[in-house]
Each structure stands twice: as C-alpha cells, then as structure tokens.
Design goal:
The complex is a heterodimer of chains A (416) and B (310).
Chain A: H1 2-5, H2 15-35, H3 38-64, H4 72-91, H5 102-120, H6 125-142, H7 147-150, E1 156-157, H8 171-192, H9 196-206, H10 208-213, H11 218-244, E2 246-247, H12 254-267, H13 274-292, H14 296-310, H15 314-327, H16 331-362, H17 365-374, E3 381-383, E4 386-388, H18 393-414
Antiparallel strand pairs in A: 1-2, 3-4
Helix pairs in contact in A: 3-8, 3-9, 3-11, 3-12, 3-13, 4-5, 4-11, 5-11, 8-11, 9-11, 12-13, 12-15, 15-16, 16-18
Chain B: H1 2-32, H2 39-57, H3 59-85, H4 90-112, H5 123-126, E1 128-132, E2 135-138, H6 139-161, H7 163-173, H8 175-180, H9 185-207, H10 217-232, H11 237-256, H12 261-267, H13 289-300
Antiparallel strand pairs in B: 1-2
Helix pairs in contact in B: 1-6, 1-7, 1-9, 1-10, 1-11, 2-3, 2-4, 2-9, 2-10, 3-9, 6-7, 6-9, 10-11, 10-13
The chains are: A mainly alpha (416), B mainly alpha (310).
Amino acid sequence: MTASVAETPMAAPPSRSRAIGVALGSLLLLVLPALATDRYLETATRGLIASLFALAFNLLWRHCRLLSFGHAAYFGAGMFATIHAMRAAEAGSLDLPLPLMPLMGLLAGAVLGLVCGALATIRTGTYFAMITLAISELVHSFGPQFGSLFGGESGLSAMRMPWAGFAFGDARQVYVLVLAWALAGAAALWLFGMTPLGRTAFAVGENETRLRFLGMRTHAVKTATFCASAAASGLAGALLAVANENVDYSIFGGGASAAPVMHTFIGGAGTFLGPVLGAVLLTGFGSIVGQATRLWLLYQGIFFVLVVMLAPGGLAGLVAAGLRRSADGQAAKALRATALVLAGALLVTCAVVFAGETLSEVLSDAYSAARATTGMRFPPVERLGLAYSPLSLPLWAAAAAAFLGGVLLLRRAMRP
Amino acid sequence: MDYFVISLLNGVVYGLLLFMVSSGLTLVFGMMGVLNFAHGSFYMIGAYAGYAIARVTGFWPAMVLAPVVVALIGAAVERWLLEPVHRHGHAQELLLTFGLVFVIEELAKLLFGPFAVDNPMPAELARPALQVGDIAFPAFKAFIGVVAAAMFAGLFALLRLTRAGLVVRAAVHRPDMVSALGHDVSRVFMLVFALGAGLAGLAGAVAGVFYPVSPNMAHELGVIVFVVVVVGGLGSLPGALVASLLIGLSTTFAVGIDATLGDGLRTLGLAWTMGGIFDVRLSSMSGAIPFFLMLLILLLRPSGLLGERA
C-alpha cells in the first residue's frame, strides 16, 4: 500500500529543482512589498488568494480523484462569515483582532463542507461533480432571499479595524496579512498529504474498492478530505473578504467555481504547486491583459481548452518533464521541446488574438460609426497599432496557417 | 380551476422543452460515459442561430436550418475536440466540455453582445391559441409543445423502429460488443453526438421565440438539464422524459403558490412565529426546487428514477 499512496513520481519534478523553485518563489513573495506599487501588490494579493483556493480545490482531486464544480459555495461561505464577523467587531459586539478574522471563514467553510461533503461523497465520478454543482446552485438560488444574511443585491460591507498599531489601511499591510495566511494554508494542505488521513485519501483515489475490502471507511475519509478542502477554500474566501471589505451573493455564481478548476488544470493538477502556477499566471495576465482587451475571458477559455487537449499534465507537467529530461542527460532534447512549445504557443496566440480583436473591432459601435462617416462598407480596422482591411485575405490566411502550424508544433512537442 | 389547467399546460410545455435538451445529453452519456457540460451551450447556439438565420430567410426556414447548423457544430466538436481527448480519460473529457462552455459563452458575447438580442415573434405565434376561462394560452407555447411532442415521437420511432436505432441502443449499453460485431462505434458516437446537439439546437431555436436570447441562457438551462438527467437516471431516455415533466410541473406550480413553509406548519397546528427559511415564499424559491429534488433522489435512489446503472 505504501507504494501506491506515494506521490505520483512521474509528475513531480526532481526534488532539487523543486526546492530551488520554492526558495526563489518565497524570496520573491517576501521582497515584493518593497518593490511593487500598490496596484501590483493588490494583484499579488489576489494571486495569493486564488492560489490558496486552487490548492484547496486540488486537494480533493489529487487525493481522492473527486472533481468539484461547486467550490464557490465554500469560498463564499468563508467570505460572508468573515464580513459578518468584521461587522460585529466594528459594532463592538465581537472582540476578535483583524489578523484572526480569517479563522471565521475557515470555520464556516469547514462546517458547510462537512455537511455538503457527507452528501456529495456518497457518489464518485460524474455524479459527484453533478452534486457539487447542484449544491452551489442551490446556495446561489438562496442568495437573493435572505437579506439579513446575504445583503441582497448590494451585498454587505465592513471595515478593517486597526489592531496593535497596524491600521490595515494600505495595500502593503493587507498583502502581508494575506501572505502569512496563504502560506500557512498552503503548508497545512501540504502537510495534510503526510498525515495517515492524507495517505489513505490518496489510496481512495487509486482504488477505493480495494480499500473498502481492507475494512476502511472510505466515505468518512472522503468526507474528511472534502471538509479540509472546503475549510481551506473558506480561508481563501475570508482573505478576499478582508482585502475587499465587501461581498455580495454573486460570489456563489458559476464564475467563482470555475476559477480554481481552470487554475488547477492549466497549472497542472499532478504536482502540489501546479495550481499555484496556474493561479498566479492567470491572475497576473488577467490583471494586465484585462485592461487592454474585452476578450480576456475568451482567450482564457481557449487557453484552457488547448491545455486540456494538448498537455493533460498542465504547465507544471511540461516543466517537470523538461527538468526530468535534462536531469537524465537529455538536455538538448529538453531544449528542443521547450523551443517547440514556445514557438507553437506564440503562433497560436498571434492567430487567436488577431481573429478575436479584428472581430471585436468590426462588431463594435465605433466601427459602425466609422462605416457611416467614411461611407465604406469595410473601412480599415485600427487595432494592435496597425491599420488593415478586415477582409484582407492574406492576413486571414496567415492567421489560419499560424493557428494550424502552432497546434501541430505543440502536438509534436508533447510527443515523448 | 382555470389557473390549474393553465399551469398544467405551462408545466407540460416547459417540461417538454427540458426533455428536448436533456434527451441528447442522456443519450450521449449512455454511449460515451461523458456528461457534456457544453450541452446547454448547444441550446444557446440554436437560439442564436435561429435568430440570425431568421433575419435572412424569415422565421420558418430558420427553425429548420438552425438545428442543422448546430448538429454540424456538434459533429465537429465531437470529432476534433472530444475524440482526441478520449484516451486521457473521462475527467479530461469533462474538463474539455467545461472549458467549451466558457469559450462558447464568450464567443456569443463577442458576436451578439452581452445582453439579450431583440428576437421578434412572428405574427402567427403572437396571438392566443386557446382560451381557458379568463386566461389565454398563447400560440407560441402551443408551438413549443407541438414541436417537442413531434420530436419525441420522431426520436422514439427512430430508436425503436429502425435498424440504425437498434445499433444506437445497443451501443448505449455495450459499445465494445457492438464494435466487435463490425459496427463503426466511433462513427455512431459522432452521429449521436450531432443528433443530440441538433435536438438541443432545435429546442433553443424554438425557445428563442419566447425566452430571452442571451449569453446567460446556456448556464441557466444547462444546470437544470443536468438535474433532469440525474433525477431521471443517467443514460435513460424514459427517465429523462419523466424527470423533465416532473421538474417542469413542480417549478411551474410552485411559482403560483404564495404560501410559506411557516404557513404550512401553522395549518398543522404548530403555531408560533418563525423567521428565516420559514418565512420565505414558496413562489420565490421555485428556482431551488429542482436542486432539492436532485439531492433527494441522490440520497434515496442514487441511480435515478428509471436508471439502471448504479
């Protein structure tokens, strides 16, 4: 049994490069407040929260092979519990310092997760996915009803109260608070895998029937893992509540449940830190690209579909494979694969962005206005610093060729 | 009484609409073991296709062309996106369709804008079809009901009375055996996927007459349709029909009931003032009923009302 519950050895990068990566990452996180402006610090704060949420989601998938499409329920529960606690502290009826407020979210996530987990883990596979989705939709449909609990359309707001000389007024102090909790949460999730419960949960994911023959109460194991995952999700939600100081019931919607799924599988579900990679990358890109284009969500969706199709191990899986190859003395091969992936990704990105931006420009109101003033049926599009005809055949042919060529390159690079 | 008859008609029409979408979903699940998250998106594409084509050809040809377009899109999705992922396992297929939902929703926003489009109703459907007491039953609802009933009859005939239907039904239960008997199962998969997408597209095109055609409609109906197939039993066509009607009727009737849970307890003689969930009107909770029903079914009869696979 010990062999089967060990970490999937294929997916993990060599331990030395992992240690270097973790050390560099921690160093960057610690010096960031000294370097970054407030805007980037706020993005980093959201990246940390998204990372913790994705790690919590992946706890269930990595251990028990359970795919939850409704983790927004526990994230949202953590947010609302924390906001209520902060409001109580503001009114003077609760004496809890701000740095300990996230504990309320942790607790709320754990309680809701225990109840819902006990229900949902009766089934596995597709049924489990459906139940989690239904539970979060159920919670979402409660949203507009209970005004005192969810605050209706406008939601609820609270203030960060000062504590021990810290005002928690600027982005820097909030960042440090979130960083401390996110690191503690991530460490707890990592340690969960070391406990006997975590080991058994791995075994449940591998072969549940066999475990049941051994007399294990697998439902209890799955419920406990679900509860731990929901508690960490609630903690992540609590951190967002502390950072945003408000919440409304739209957090229970599909978007919040989709975020950890996308982050996890783009980053790579097979390794512990893969979801962090996905969360940081997508939050960072979303913050930068989201300002330049309306189509960020479309690009993110296409990116997700391409990763699912071409690189089932996610980005971390690619990195791990490359590192393993170079450790095996096949550095040239690893370099070639990296170059192929980069070239393919660049070609596909160019093609998708060209098509998306051109379409969005042609369909925009500004373009209709230009059509009216110039009197041309298809006046030139000014986009991406260029002016070109939206019907230009060579450009579209080049885009199609770049897309197909890029996908072919990527497929070639994925071949072992 | 009039109210009861009208609610019954409304519930049946909504239920049949749900069945049009869920039948394809449950067939595909039965054959491939994959729950297609993007099935609701095909419904949405059908509505948008119906709207766009109707502007060129007029309303009635669009009702025929839109499902064909969606079926072709479905076939392409199965062949070029789903099939290559098949070897990576069910979870990966589930994730792929999950991602497609977002891509299709964003594409709809890009092409048609983020809000509901103005989809005019043809004059033939805008008048009342029959009168029940003081309440009129509109023609477009009768139209939705007639199309759904015709589709049900057609699907039933196709699956039960033709040889192709025999192969499909066999492939739902024992794909390996059917393949061993010399049928090209992957081709059957693609055709059934296209058929299911086309049915969802037809439902969307027809429903677009009445329901707002917006990028949200995929998610709104998609989740309810999952509930339908789980309640009916994944892979069971009769189960999908029963569950569709059950959910259609229960949500329609709940909308008209203005009582609270507390009222119910008070009539039983448990009279005290309650708050919270006991004071929420049943009518405002009609959206939650399908999910309660689903949780109940999963706890009491996990394989669904008429499902056989545990």
